[in-house]
Amino acid sequence: MLILECPYCGVKAEETELHGGGEAHLKRFGPGSSDDEFHDYLFMKENPRGVHLERWRHVNGCGKWFHAARCTQTLEVFATYSAQTTEPPQEVKDKISAKRPGWTWREFEG
Amino acid sequence: MSNAVSALGGASFAGLAKVEETGLGGMITLRGDLASAKVQAAVKAATGAAVPDTRRIVFGDAGAAAWMSPDELLLLVEYERVDAVVAKLGEDLAGEHHMAVNVSDARACFAVSGEAAREVIAKVAPVDLDDGQFEAGTFRRTRFAQIAGAFWLDDAGTFHIVCFRSVAGYMYNLLCAAAHPQSKVGVYA
């Protein structure tokens, strides 16, 4: 059972209270972008074995979106953090680095 | 003026715990900056209660204020007073970015009381209902089996639940099944 702590209401919510929102920190390509950029934005999602950054929504709760950093292999959760950011905060990166030294995820690394 | 009635006409069931539909409750959704002095004063004027801390409900002399999310409160007042309170909130919060909406008729209210009330709710909601964890004044939005709902515990040990009116029948049947006299688990006894 995946348990994430919602950074907005502080509830340690289990999976059934939450809704997954896919990959975090997507850079959107819309009008004016090339076909390749738009294709990559739409279809080329990260699907790592290991450290992953995701969006989640506390749907049966306070209703807010937030980010989670977790390991897809062990279901270990490193941290959850605010949705109002375009990259993981340094403290989240540090928490991941403490458990998974040398991790990388898209352009981010420990 | 039409005769307003609640979803289930005050249905009640006595099993492990007493489950009852508590009739029409006045509810206002208030969104805005909860840290703002103007909002805090308006909530005080509407309900007599202060703005609650995260996941709490505060009672005042004219109602209660419950924490729904970082920018949203649920104000509980008498059903007959709702329209007047919404109008007053609009005056008090003029110029302040906010939204106050009467949602009374979109909701159904239930009470679960009695010795096994904790157990009845714990069977259907993924919430830690241990005595030290869920106390009087705690407010929690969650799900009850397949539907969204919110509930709190009052000083008398009664749980109060609010959910959407459209699923009132589901909520009532669910609580009655969880309170079936032969379904005791005894986990919080």
SSE blueprint:
The complex is a heterodimer of chains A (110) and B (189).
Chain A: E1 3-5, E2 12-14, E3 19-23, H1 35-43, E4 51-57, E5 65-71, E6 77-82, H2 90-99, E7 104-105, E8 108-109
Antiparallel strand pairs in A: 1-2, 3-4, 4-5, 5-6, 7-8
Chain B: E1 12-14, E2 18-21, E3 26-32, H1 37-47, E4 57-60, E5 63-69, E6 72-77, H2 82-92, E7 98-102, E8 107-113, H3 117-124, E9 139-144, E10 147-153, E11 159-164, H4 168-178
Antiparallel strand pairs in B: 1-2, 2-8, 3-6, 3-7, 4-5, 5-6, 8-11, 9-10, 10-11
Helix pairs in contact in B: 1-2
InterPro entries (chain A): SoxD (IPR006279), SoxD_sf (IPR038561)
GO molecular function, one term (chain A): sarcosine oxidase activity
Pfam families (chain A): SoxD
Features:
heterodimer, A: 110 residues, alpha+beta, Folate-binding fold, two-stranded antiparallel ribbon, 2 helices, globular, B: 189 residues, Gyrase A, domain 2, Alpha-Beta Plaits, six-stranded antiparallel beta sheet, five-stranded antiparallel beta sheet, 4 helices, TrmE/GcvT-like (chain B), SoxG (chain B), Sarcosine oxidase subunit gamma (chain B), sarcosine oxidase activity (chain A), SoxD_sf (chain A)
